[in-house]
């Protein structure tokens, strides 16, 4: 948590050890969270890490307690530092889940009937740049379906996740945000309709119909991700729906349960209220990494030469590979006009870029928390 606030790692370790020594010396072996933080903040201020760092600590504590979902997308072509950036940010921000689209691509390609090939899209021949980008977008959509289970689980559990790789098309995730806005409007309409007088039985019946509809939609939309073996969240959601319907069926068949019918309905009503309570809006942060043409070309030539020697699927024409990757990079960067963050990567300024991304993600988390807090009173009032 200290490292998350941008305190250097070696200083964070010293402060943590000092706090431990302070508690042990004063025999404070059973301490409340508020007392722990009070002592911690004194030690932070003593070392010159005052109000700004303390506020960041409190903000991140709220973020974890409120379980606001965070999805960080690190996009870019080969050799732009995606894996390094994702790993470093995960370490700094204490985010344990890092998912690589390359791994998802291979799982889908080898374990399912997904229309994916062993030859990367940037290593194939195309008649035009438009054809290359069209195929790239198609593969990104297939990978997005493969990510559905992991994303659904992250949203449900309120756990942060970093996704990095070449198979990330920002436009797909922009569309997801638009769909989410439409869904929230629909939820408000449903809530207004449910305020009208209705019997408990009709509400229960309508809820069961909605659950069956959701199950059918999940079955049709997420079948590919289930076959890939990477959709644990979706499987858990489906088993929950099935077990709920089974229990309802058993109660209906058991006449001796009539005495407890009203209690069950009240309990079901309370559970429905909790279940229908909208989750916190996820914080989605897409980032595209871009490297200067000169540096990128040098790295790509070295990388393709290394891969070509052990990977027969790569052609020997390195200029074609580099040109294809450049086209994909230009496509990804084209979303900058829509508000997407494009970060220039350089070997000389890599630590500074990492620091900037650290601060940028903290700002995004803070804005997401403020939005979640502003939504809470409205939900409570409704």
UniProtKB/TrEMBL annotation:
Residues 179-195, 202-219, 249-279 have a biased composition (Basic and acidic residues). InterPro entries: P-loop_NTPase (IPR027417). It comes from the Eukaryota. Residues 179-229, 245-279 are annotated as: Disordered. This is 2-phosphoglycerate kinase. It comes from Oryza meridionalis.
């Amino acid at each position: 948590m200290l490292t998350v606030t941008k305190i250097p790692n070696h200083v964070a370790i010293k402060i943590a050890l000092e706090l431990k020594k302070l508690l042990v010396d004063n025999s404070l072996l059973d301490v409340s969270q508020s007392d722990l933080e009070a002592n911690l903040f004194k030690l932070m201020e003593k070392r010159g890490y005052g109000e700004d760092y303390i506020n960041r600590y409190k903000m991140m504590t709220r973020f974890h307690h409120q379980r606001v979902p965070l999805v960080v997308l690190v996009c870019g072509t080969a050799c732009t530092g995606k894996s390094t950036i994702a790993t470093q940010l995960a370490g700094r921000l204490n985010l344990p889940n890092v998912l690589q689209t390359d791994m998802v691509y291979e799982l889908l390609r080898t374990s399912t009937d997904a229309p994916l090939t062993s030859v990367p899209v940037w290593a194939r021949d195309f008649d035009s740049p438009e054809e290359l980008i069209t195929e790239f977008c198609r593969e990104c959509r297939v990978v997005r379906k493969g990510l559905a289970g992991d994303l659904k689980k992250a949203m449900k559990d309120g756990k942060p996740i970093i996704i990095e790789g070449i198979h990330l098309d920002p436009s797909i995730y922009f569309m997801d945000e638009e769909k989410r806005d439409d869904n929230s409007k629909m939820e408000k309409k449903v809530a207004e309709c449910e305020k009208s007088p209705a019997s408990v039985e009709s509400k229960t019946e309508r809820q069961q119909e909605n659950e069956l509809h959701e199950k059918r939609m999940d079955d049709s939309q997420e079948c590919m991700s289930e076959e890939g073996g990477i959709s644990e969240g979706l499987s858990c959601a489906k088993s929950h729906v099935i077990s709920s319907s089974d229990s309802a069926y058993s109660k209906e068949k058991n006449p001796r349960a009539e005495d407890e019918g009203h209690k069950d309905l009240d309990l079901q009503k309370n559970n429905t209220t909790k279940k229908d309570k909208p989750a916190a809006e996820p914080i989605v942060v897409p980032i595209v990494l871009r490297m200067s043409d000169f540096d990128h070309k040098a790295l790509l030539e070295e990388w393709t030469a290394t891969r070509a020697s052990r990977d027969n699927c790569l052609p020997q024409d390195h200029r074609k590979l580099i040109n294809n990757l450049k086209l994909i990079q230009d496509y990804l960067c084209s979303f900058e006009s829509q508000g997407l963050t494009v970060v220039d990567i350089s070997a000389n300024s890599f630590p500074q870029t990492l620091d900037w991304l650290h601060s940028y993600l903290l700002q995004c988390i803070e804005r997401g928390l403020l939005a979640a807090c502003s939504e809470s009173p409205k939900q409570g009032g409704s």
